[in-house]
Design goal:
Blueprint lengths: L6 H8 L4 H30 L6 H18 L2 H16 L2 H26 L3
Helix pairs in contact: 2-3, 2-5, 3-4, 4-5
């Protein structure tokens, strides 16, 4: 798997406290990315159901994921989340469908990389 986390940002995160604090922070972020992934999968299904799409919920989730991605230096994920946020705001179902699939996949990758780094703490 290609790394999506910026090593400098991750080093700063891992150096922000003692090992207990860092482990708790990584655990919370892994949980957040797992939740975003799972909610993203549910919302992605709504993109296929024309009448049931909650573009506001899609935009909020993309915005939250963007903030978490910025925190850990996941630059590609940050960019895709920003794009998804704009597409959801516009209600561009077709473009958002592809972008959303990329976003939830990268949320999963971020969680896995954080888990790998948690083992080093």
């Amino acid at each position: 798997m290609t790394t999506i986390l910026d090593s400098d940002s991750l080093a700063a995160l891992l150096g922000c406290g003692d090992s207990t604090v860092v482990a708790a922070l990584l655990e919370q972020m892994m949980s957040d990315f797992a939740r975003l992934h799972d909610q993203g999968v549910v919302l992605m299904a709504s993109l296929g159901a024309q009448a049931d799409t909650d573009f506001s919920a899609l935009r909020r989730l993309a915005h939250e994921a963007k903030g978490l991605a910025l925190t850990i230096g996941a630059h590609k994920l940050t960019q895709i989340c920003a794009e998804a946020e704009v597409l959801a705001q516009k209600g561009d179902r077709d473009a958002l469908s592809q972008c959303w699939a990329d976003m939830i996949g990268l949320c999963s990758d971020a969680r896995v990389e954080l888990a790998q780094n948690r083992m080093r703490v």
